[in-house]
Write a structure and sequence with these properties.
The protein is α+β, with helices and mostly antiparallel strands. The protein has five helices and nine strands, in the order E-H-E-E-E-H-E-E-H-H-E-E-E-H. Strands 2-3-4-7-6-5 form a six-stranded antiparallel beta barrel.
């Protein structure tokens, strides 16, 4: 069990960490423990890296996910070694990172990235009730493509029974954020080297119809208007 949390980093205005293991230790001034900010990052992200300790050693697997209130939903095949370990509840560490920009400094040493990240610790448990599992899968689809569940066939009972969904509480999580431009040494400021930020963002391209599409169904709004939620980009001064 984690020990009692230490006091929050002085002056970061982020509140108290929920546990010792969720405390940001490297550059603690970048740490945040605000649940709303964690939710916003999770809602904007698409891929979570899920880590567990297996019989073969540590395993980290990239997975799609969805957020339902104060819990994360993860899904996969019941045959998956990662998710199979969670049938009775398993400890996990889940990380989601958004890269907002490349920070180019005057020296190679001070190059960095602007980012927003969430790390979640907790015990994931299976969603056993089929009605709750159906709602969880709808939430996963809506997280990835908002509005899509109303446009497609819903899962049948065979598909529901063949899909494992895990629920992971967000009670023990932390946020880490880096914004702003490069931080160079005073002696490097007069070097004739360009420095600044190259912003990065996830931008959807034009939808491409499936090659085996039958008839002439119209392009749905979920595809035609697809865009990820707007986030707090990484170039504001700080």
């Amino acid at each position: 069990m984690p020990t009692a949390p230490p006091p929050p980093a002085a002056g970061n205005g982020a509140g108290a960490p929920p546990s010792a293991r969720a405390t940001v230790r490297r550059l603690p001034e970048r740490g945040r423990y605000d649940r709303a900010q964690a939710h916003a990052i999770l809602d904007e992200g698409l891929v979570a890296h899920v880590g567990v300790a297996s019989d073969d050693g540590p395993v980290v697997i990239p997975m799609l996910y969805g957020r339902d209130g104060d819990r994360l939903l993860l899904h996969g095949s019941p045959a998956s070694r990662l998710l199979r370990a969670g049938k009775g509840g398993t400890d996990m560490c889940v990380a989601v990172t958004l890269v907002d920009g490349l920070v180019l400094a005057r020296s190679a040493f001070h190059h960095s990235m602007n980012y927003r990240s969430v790390v979640v610790f907790g015990r994931a448990t299976p969603v056993a009730d089929l009605a709750e599992r159906r709602a969880a899968l709808d939430r996963l689809v809506e997280h990835i493509v908002p509005g899509r569940t109303a446009e497609v066939r819903e899962p049948n009972e065979r598909e529901l029974r063949g899909t494992l969904v895990l629920s992971l509480p967000l009670d023990e999580c932390s946020v880490k954020v880096r914004t702003g431009g490069p931080v160079d040494e005073d002696e490097d400021m007069d070097l004739p080297v360009w420095a600044g930020v190259v912003p990065l963002a996830t931008v959807a391209g034009a939808p491409v119809a499936a090659g085996d599409l039958r008839g002439d169904p119209p392009m749905p709004a979920s595809a035609a208007r697809y865009a990820r939620p707007a986030g707090a980009g990484g170039i504001a001064a700080r």
